[in-house]
Design a protein that fits this description.
Elements (H helix, E strand, L loop, with lengths): L4 E10 L6 H19 L3 E9 L3 H9 L4 H18 L6 E4 L3 H16 L3 E11 L4 E3 L18 E10 L5 H10 L4 E2 L1 H12 L5 E2 L1 E2 L7 E2 L2 E6 L1 H6 L1 H4 L7 H7 L4 E5 L3 H15 L7 E4 L2 E3 L2 E2 L10 H8 L1 H11 L6 E3 L1 H31 L11 H22 L3 H22 L1 H4 L6 H22 L4 H11 L10 H4 L23 H23 L3 H5 L3 E11 L7 E6 L4 E6 L7 H4 L3 E5 L5 E3 L2 E3 L2 E2 L1 E3 L4 E3 L11 E2 L1
Parallel strand pairs: 1-2, 1-12, 2-3, 7-13, 12-13, 14-16
Antiparallel strand pairs: 4-5, 4-6, 6-8, 9-11, 10-11, 14-15, 17-18, 17-20, 17-26, 18-19, 20-23, 21-22, 24-25
Helix pairs in contact: 2-3, 5-6, 11-12, 12-13, 13-15, 13-17, 13-20, 14-15, 14-17, 15-17, 17-18
The chain binds 5'-O-[(L-methionyl)-sulphamoyl]adenosine.
């Protein structure tokens, strides 16, 4: 019989940033399901990788004086090392700069074109480089800022190939409606359905404004839009279209796991691309929530983007994996707090699980010289335990398949609780005092050891190192994959007469005060370092040429309630400058004012109006107040 297959993927991560806890979250979740399915006998393909093209990467590289490929090579190592550290069991790591992937991207583009779905047009829009997104004028904030990251956008007009995405609107809707599992969780599904019902537009799928990407076949001035390139990774990694063996085996994929921010790309762009090239759609896309840190958005500038390397070194890999999956329902947003992490480690891992293992093995050492006793004297409580083990397997099976990781862990911890109560109720330490009860003592300890065996199996997908560690101490089946999962799910399958391994504490208890103080020290140190990085030297400062300018004309800019167009006399020349001060000043109030002007700023267009320089103003909440200069100072005088 052919082995059942299972294909799970993470998003491919951008290489303009080093990995943080948010990236680790998606990857740990995908790893958990991959491990579980392997255990359950599936032939699994688990894919992760990096997204290395696009203007964002090109810019990040030039900021660091590197070529885009050099930057990618550096950051990829960080990702790969982190996945190794976190015990991620991916079967392949894809990089979009690899040749096989680029060939597939071109093949997909060509196929879309052959099917009549690509045409040449002209794109005009407000482009946000950090977000790699074009916005329409009505979507912009404050005149020209990106509604997603609030940074200024640039108006771009360029020849562009378009994908007839609109053509697939009805087919896509029909698919989503017929396949309730296609988009999960259900709240996200509804969001996407309403988005599609508003009407799908054609998608601009090539750029001529930069070079770092896969060239459009036959028109190499254009590079293929980075999302078309990136999404194709899910099939290029399987050898589509030339080497079809892996593709035939694993496609359609079972789960694309993604963050909620990139759901639309995966449930609108990706499926319509697949419809265009005649490839089946993936079975399910699951959007998980976002992590904040101590209540705040994670960001480089706040210095709170938690480094997963540091976390894993400080707390251990499994506690981090456990915390991420246990603390928050997959699909909802969550908050990372050190207090909550320490609490989970002390209470769930060290206390409930660690102590159970430790005290049970201690008793087997004491009363049975470390050898697993026979099960000879049954009692009804043992049946209850056996039923609980069976039910826990059934529950977790369903819960993991739904990616309800926190529920699965909570089911497992109900079994941990049951086992702890079983020990407390059967009181082996009293049984040990009565020679007549030796048979029952052995049976009780056998049952708990067998429960621990079952636990080690259940925990394997989530916290593999702990699982291996438990199994070593129980001296049970060495290679977890060589076992028959169905057999192992049954209670009382542990072999008697075997000597236990060396007893080791699973997790040390953490001193909350001490750890929180360490964390604070580290954060303070990082802030200091960041501050030091932010200081500029005199040479940098003196690159800025500030001059006194006198405003001699001012007018409003159409459609903008924030911007004014100023004409400024800089002594030796006149300049046109656009300034965001319309909420503070009427144009007529400005005439004659002497202000500080940054004279060597690169010219820019704001709301379509040329601006050559910037006037300095102090920012209030919503208003900006000009730095005014004494009227005796001549226009053009330097400000130092
Ligand atoms: N390169 C694209 C994905 C292309 S997939 C064909 C991308 N990369 S990313 O590096 O910016 O983000 C990758 C994933 O990390 C996203 O799913 C995103 O949601 C996730 N996270 C980034 N920050 C996160 C949190 N703060 N919390 C949880 N996950 C977050 O998007």
């Amino acid at each position: 019989m052919n082995q059942k297959t299972f294909y799970v993927s993470t998003p491919i991560y951008y290489v303009n940033d080093v990995p943080h806890i948010g990236h680790a979250y998606t990857t740990v979740a995908a790893d958990t399901i991959a491990r579980y399915k392997r255990l359950a006998g599936y032939d699994v393909f688990f894919l992760t990788g990096t997204d290395e093209h696009g203007q964002k990467i090109e810019h990040a590289a030039s900021d660091k004086n590197l070529s885009p490929k050099e930057l990618a090579d550096n950051v990829v190592t960080r990702f790969k090392n982190l996945w190794e550290k976190l015990n991620i069991s991916n079967d392949h790591f894809i990089r979009t700069t690899e040749e096989y992937h680029q060939k597939t991207v071109q093949a997909v583009f060509t196929k879309m074109k052959e099917n009549g779905d690509i045409y040449l047009g002209e794109y005009e829009g407000w482009y946000c480089t950090p977000c790699e997104t074009y916005w329409t004028e009505t979507q912009l904030l404050d005149g020209n800022c990106c509604p997603s990251c609030r940074r200024p956008t640039t108006k771009l007009k360029e020849p562009s190939y378009f994908f007839r995405m609109s053509k697939y609107q009805d087919k896509l809707l029909e698919h989503i409606e017929r396949n309730p599992d296609f988009i999960k969780p259900v709240s996200r599904r509804n969001e996407i359905i309403s988005f599609i019902k508003e009407g799908l537009k054609d998608l601009s799928v090539s750029r001529v404004s930069f070079k770092w990407g896969v060239p459009v076949p036959g028109d190499e001035k254009h590079v293929i839009y980075v999302w078309i390139d990136a999404l194709t990774n899910y099939i290029s990694a399987l050898g589509y279209p030339d080497r079809s063996e892996m593709f035939d085996k694993y496609w359609p994929g079972d789960y694309h796991i993604v963050g909620k921010d990139i759901l639309r790309f995966h449930t609108v762009y990706w499926p319509t691309m697949l419809l265009s090239i005649g490839v089946d759609l993936p079975k399910s896309v699951f959007a998980h929530g976002w992590w904040t840190v101590e209540g705040q958005k994670m960001s480089k500038s706040l210095g709170n983007a938690i480094d997963p390397y540091w976390l894993a070194d400080k707390f251990g890999v499994d506690p981090i994996r456990y915390f991420l999956l246990r603390e928050v329902p997959f699909g909802l947003d969550g908050d990372f707090s050190f207090k909550a992490l320490i609490h989970r480690i002390n209470s769930d891992l060290a206390n409930d699980l660690g102590n159970l293992l430790n005290r049970t093995l201690g008793m087997v050492n004491r009363y049975f010289d470390g050898v697993i006793p026979e099960y000879t004297d049954p009692e009804s409580l043992d049946e209850e335990l056996a039923d609980t083990i069976k039910e826990t397997f059934e529950k977790m099976d369903a819960q993991i398949s739904e990616l309800a990781f926190n529920k699965a862990l909570s089911s497992i911890w109900e079994l941990v609780g049951f086992l702890n109560r079983y020990v407390d109720t059967t009181t082996p330490w009293f049984l040990a005092k009565d020679e007549d009860k030796r048979g029952r003592l052995g049976s009780v300890l056998y049952c708990v050891l067998d429960g621990l065996r079952a636990l080690s199996l259940m925990l394997y997908p989530f916290i593999p190192e702990t699982s291996v560690n438990m199994r070593k101490q129980l001296n049970t089946e060495k290679d977890i994959y060589k076992t028959n999962f169905e057999e192992l799910k049954k209670a009382r399958t542990l072999e008697s007469g075997i000597r236990l391994g060396e007893i080791k504490q699973l997790y040390p208890r953490l001193d909350e005060k001490e750890i929180l103080a360490d964390v604070k020290n580290l954060q303070d140190k990082e802030k200091e370092e960041q501050k030091a990085e932010e200081l500029i030297d005199f040479e940098t400062f003196s690159k800025m040429k500030i001059k006194v300018g006198q405003i001699y004309a001012a007018e409003k800019i159409k459609k903008s309630d924030k911007l004014l167009k100023l004409q400024v006399d800089l002594g030796s020349e006149n300049r046109q400058i656009v300034a965001g001060i319309a909420k503070t000043y009427a144009p007529e109030d400005l005439i004659g004012k002497k202000v500080a002007v940054v004279a060597n700023l690169k010219p820019a267009k704001l709301m379509g109006v040329d601006s050559e320089g910037m006037v300095l103003a102090a920012s209030g909440d919503d208003r900006h107040f000009l730095i005014e200069i004494d009227e005796d100072v001549k226009a053009g005088s330097p400000v130092k």
